[in-house]
Amino acid sequence: MSVSARPLPVTHADDETDLASLKVVPSRHPWRWVGVAVVLVLLAQFLHGLATNPGWDWPVFSRYFTADSILRAVGVTIQLTFYGTVLGFALGVVLALMRLSKSPFLQVVSWTYVWAFRSIPLIVQLLFWFNIAYLYQRFDFGVPFGPSFFSFDTKDLIGPMSAAVLGLALHQAAYAAEIVRSGIISVDHGQLEAAAALGIPRLRQFRRIVLPQAMRSILPNAANEVISLFKGTSVVSVMAIGELFYQAQVIYGRNARVVALLMVATVWYIAMTTLLSLVQYYLERHYAKGALRNLPPTPLQRVRAQVAVLRARAGANR
User: What is the pTM of this model?
Assistant: First the structure.
């Protein structure tokens, strides 16, 4: 038996006729619609419960949602998140570069820091910095093991807010260091070799070649850490700092409206987390320019495109 490698003759006119006679039938997904229906029913039940169940206590929610004490607490939460993020990632970048350096000493110092601060729970770190005055009553600045030139009382130098920012930043730096390091090592080393062959300085290599590509790997994890830090600021309530969760606890401790005040804190957390997620989306879209020729449309652009299509169809029907 022999097989001929010569292709059979093809008649394009017959092919076009056959294709034109075929009926296009869209694929059906019955179970997909069943799943959609189940989700919509459950969502409708949940929304009905929110609207009709008096236990949610919506009048109390509306009264306290924009209360001055709650708004001040939201401001404190945002401050803690901002300072913890900026200081934590600034130190994390330094630790990541130390870990990637050729110096064994710097590598050991960076690894030890990350190991220590990832091993100790955040609440323990916060309480330690809050009570640092019990260990060191004064901070002296001068010659090591010699005379001091000036000094400060610890309780005046590190207050509750300073202790909270310090604890959050140092804790965040350990995770930020690993996030930045993973992003840097994800960049192909051959690009650095090519840049070095072209005589590009090392600082410019990192700033213009490595960092823009590493940001695509860094941003999702970094944004996740920032959102976790935003919610994790509720831990500082053990230090009696007036952040959002602590203030909600104080209010429902007075009026016993626990669910309503917890919903106040929950909605504020959801709102701020949504804003952070939007910032993350547009930052990721910005740094995707080096990987994609045509960026995907934003949700707003998609809505505008759909509106334009609907208007065009309406005009055609007229």
Answer: 0.76
Partners of residue 138 on adjacent β-strands: 153
Cα 32 to Cα 24, 41, 205, distances in angstroms? 21, 14, 49
Per-residue confidence (pLDDT) for residue 26, from 0 to 100: 75
Q: What is the mean pLDDT of the chain?
A: 82
| Residue 40: pLDDT over 90 | yes
